């Protein structure tokens, strides 16, 4: 194997410009973190709402929730990216469509965030539904029997417990968000994977480039994991072994 | 708006899309077979008694599972030609990548499957005078495999969706074919939508079948 | 007016009838025990009383308010009716004390101080004053059920429903829970109790209802029930259960 190693490449200047390759990677990391965290917030809010709705006694709401989950789970993320970027704007009202295509600030970032957020929300909705349904039926009854309304029963009894039960799958989902954010390169978000390809072509030092980017992804996943572990520890209920699964 | 969709471009592009879909399907099937085979070996290594083997297998699985698939695709596309000394093309690179990558995910499933088989079964195998490999091959793995069929299939549906990521190295799968056709006919909106419909129809049908299978297996047990 | 009025109540799961034309009533201050073989519909009936289970025919009035009636404010009605469950159903993510205050604060709108005062008094009463900062999971079954009774009482209910309150307990813990219930009865609480504890029924109940296959087969005063139960099925049930 013939390969010209050059570990100093990160501090060298790019071919046309006065930035260093390191600055490319750092800004890539910034976009990766921004897309991931912003979509995570969307995913949590929507995912909990839709997952909850799917356990209510309202049949039509349950169906709507199920349809939502099926829609987002059965189309590849990359295809969804293209749909949001190229297709959805065409179906908006004329003025809005023009605005989205020409004037919307940070268009790529916003599109990728919405896409990844909704995609992840469907997966979280599935976890939330399973979590709520794994609680003993008596818990819901006990809340209602006390005179709590159904929304109050969810707010104070069911959701806090369901949340604790689904922390492990939520942890891997949080790590997945960082990994999946790499797909945003395809619509031109200047995140890590985009920068990796760009630097690889520009510097021709592929191995060093990919190694650095891989380590950065690794660090992201690790930090995400530790954050969730911290939350899990803080919210643990002594004496209660989660009826997990 | 909907009225502006020009569906007439779909028909002439069908043969082209069909070639793309065939590649996606082949990639899925090969990566599934190879992935399950290697994944089973990895799972056995992780559950086995040899410390170094366990360590290597876990390191491999954990590494693959914590890197974005896209990066793995790029890595293999870069490194394989360096190792063998000549370019191999996006399609072959994709085959190797997906087999290696999915093996890590399948191995986690097989590990759970092996652990789901009662301890007494292993002892019963040994009691009959079987060796380790015989016990595994004749007693444990068939049961593990059976218990995990729905999960293995679900993972395969995910794998099928993930094959769209070969877009990054330019292999001509269904999505790439739609992408090219969209550019040729200058109708990207229609082509992306159409490819989404195909993916959805296939994945939804398959996952419905898996769901029904799951219920059926649950009843049998 | 009776505290609980059950008139001609029928309920189906699909085509399967779980309750058939059940009619009975519980007067203010009365203790009524419901017994019967498993699957006889007794738990379902008691859950209909506070609307936890819907029913398709008949009506149930609690303190004059129709449970199944369209305009009824069910949460308000339930806040007046205490319920104790077979599996306790304490909220595992809340401390014992929070289990007793959450309803008072969120449903009755009491101040935190007032709710805490009430909760302390009730924990003392069920003999668990030192356990208020524990998590439910750290308590024995008998202790959990006593907390659950305290939780129901914290709402100042006008009547109490008990759904097999001792059947999930180890034998040595049944007594402590029954003792709390007995005290409650003695103070004049209106109670409807689904239980297999015939000793409790004999000593505490004013009336006994016997159910089988969704029907109320027997509805008699305690003396009459244990003296001369009229139906064969009730006799069979009693002979089986008393032999233990």
Q: Can I get a quick summary?
A:
The complex is a heterotrimer of chains A (245), B (221) and C (244). Chain B has 221 residues and is mainly α. Chain B is built from 8 helices and no strands.
Structure description:
The complex is a heterotrimer of chains A (245), B (221) and C (244). Chain A is an all-alpha fold and 245 residues long. Chain A has a domain of 162 residues: MetI-like (MetI-like fold, Orthogonal Bundle), CATH 1.10.3720.10. In chain A, helix 6 packs antiparallel against helix 7 and helix 9 packs antiparallel against helix 10. The longest helix of chain A is centred in the first third of the chain and has 33 residues. The relative contact order of chain A is 0.16. The model of chain B has no long low-confidence stretch (mean pLDDT 90). Chain C is 38% helix and 25% strand. In chain C, the strands form 2 sheets. Chain C has a 6-stranded mixed sheet with strand order 6-7-8-3-9-10, sandwiched between helices. In chain C, strand 7, helix 6 and strand 8 form a beta-alpha-beta unit. The model of chain C has no long low-confidence stretch (mean pLDDT 92). Classes of the chains: A mainly alpha (245), B mainly alpha (221), C alpha/beta (244). Chains A and B meet through helix 2, helix 3, helix 8, helix 9 and helix 10 of A and helix 3 and helix 8 of B.
């Amino acid at each position: 194997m013939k390969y010209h190693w050059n570990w100093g490449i990160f501090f060298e200047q790019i071919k046309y410009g006065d930035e260093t390759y390191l600055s490319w990677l750092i800004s890539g990391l910034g976009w990766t973190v921004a897309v991931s965290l912003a979509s995570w917030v969307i995913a949590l809010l929507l995912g909990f709402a839709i997952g909850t709705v799917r356990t209510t006694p309202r049949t039509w709401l349950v169906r709507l929730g199920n349809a939502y989950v099926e829609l987002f789970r059965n189309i590849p993320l990359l295809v969804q990216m293209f749909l949001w970027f190229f297709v959805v704007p065409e179906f908006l009202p004329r003025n809005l469509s023009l605005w989205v295509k020409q004037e919307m600030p940070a268009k790529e970032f916003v599109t990728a965030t919405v896409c990844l957020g909704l995609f992840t929300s469907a997966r979280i909705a599935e976890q939330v539904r399973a979590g709520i349904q794994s609680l003993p039926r008596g818990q819901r009854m006990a809340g209602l029997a006390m005179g709590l309304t159904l929304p109050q029963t969810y707010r104070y009894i069911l959701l806090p417990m369901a949340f604790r039960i689904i922390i492990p799958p939520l942890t891997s989902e949080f790590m997945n968000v960082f990994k999946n954010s790499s797909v945003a390169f395809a619509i031109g978000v200047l995140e890590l994977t985009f920068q990796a390809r760009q630097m690889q072509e520009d510097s021709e030092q592929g191995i060093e480039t990919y190694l650095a980017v891989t380590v950065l992804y690794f660090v992201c996943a690790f930090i995400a994991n530790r954050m969730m572990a911290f939350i899990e520890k803080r919210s643990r209920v002594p004496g209660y072994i989660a009826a997990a699964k | 708006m909907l009225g502006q969709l020009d569906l007439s471009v779909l028909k002439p592009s069908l043969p082209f899309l069909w070639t793309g879909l065939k590649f996606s399907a082949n990639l899925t099937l090969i990566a599934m077979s190879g992935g399950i085979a290697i994944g089973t070996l990895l799972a056995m290594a992780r559950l086995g008694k040899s410390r170094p083997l366990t360590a290597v297998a876990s390191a491999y699985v954990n590494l693959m599972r914590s890197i974005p698939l896209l990066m793995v695709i790029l890595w293999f596309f870069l490194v394989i030609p360096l190792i063998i000394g000549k370019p191999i093309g996006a399609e072959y690179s994709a085959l190797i990548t997906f087999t290696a990558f999915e093996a890590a995910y399948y191995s986690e499933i097989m590990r759970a499957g092996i652990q789901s088989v009662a301890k007494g079964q292993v002892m019963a195998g040994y009691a009959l005078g079987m060796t380790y490999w015989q016990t595994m091959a004749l007693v444990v793995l068939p049961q593990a495999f059976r218990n995990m069929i729905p999960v293995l299939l679900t993972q395969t549906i995910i794998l099928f969706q993930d094959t769209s990521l070969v877009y990054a190295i330019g292999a001509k799968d269904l999505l790439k074919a739609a992408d090219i056709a969209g550019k040729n006919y200058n109708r990207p909106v229609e082509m992306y939508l159409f490819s989404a419909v195909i993916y959805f129809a296939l994945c939804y049908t398959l996952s419905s079948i898996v769901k029904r299978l799951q219920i059926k297996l649950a009843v049998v047990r | 007016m009776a505290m609980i009025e059950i008139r001609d109540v029928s309920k189906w799961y699909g085509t399967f009838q779980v309750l058939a034309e059940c009619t009975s009533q519980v007067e203010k201050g009365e203790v009524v025990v419901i017994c019967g073989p498993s699957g006889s519909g007794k738990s379902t009936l008691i859950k209909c009383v506070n609307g936890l289970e819907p029913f398709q025919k008949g009506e149930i009035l609690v303190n004059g308010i129709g449970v199944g009636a369209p305009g009824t404010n069910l949460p308000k009605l339930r806040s007046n009716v205490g319920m104790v469950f077979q599996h306790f159903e304490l909220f595992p993510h809340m401390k014992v004390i929070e289990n007793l205050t959450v309803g008072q604060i969120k449903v009755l709108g009491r101040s935190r101080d007032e709710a805490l005062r009430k909760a302390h008094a009730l924990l003392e009463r069920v003999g668990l004053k030192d356990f208020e900062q524990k998590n439910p999971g750290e308590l024995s079954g008998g202790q959990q059920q006593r907390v659950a009774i305290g939780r129901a009482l914290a709402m100042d209910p006008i009547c109490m429903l008990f759904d097999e309150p001792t059947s999930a307990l180890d034998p040595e813990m049944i007594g402590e829970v029954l003792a709390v219930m007995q005290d409650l009865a003695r103070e004049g609480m209106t109670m409807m109790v689904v239980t297999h504890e015939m000793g409790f029924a004999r000593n505490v109940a004013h009336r006994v209802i016997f159910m089988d296959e969704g029907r109320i087969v027997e509805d008699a005063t305690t003396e009459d029930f244990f003296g001369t139960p009229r139906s064969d099925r009730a006799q069979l049930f009693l002979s089986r259960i008393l032999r233990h």
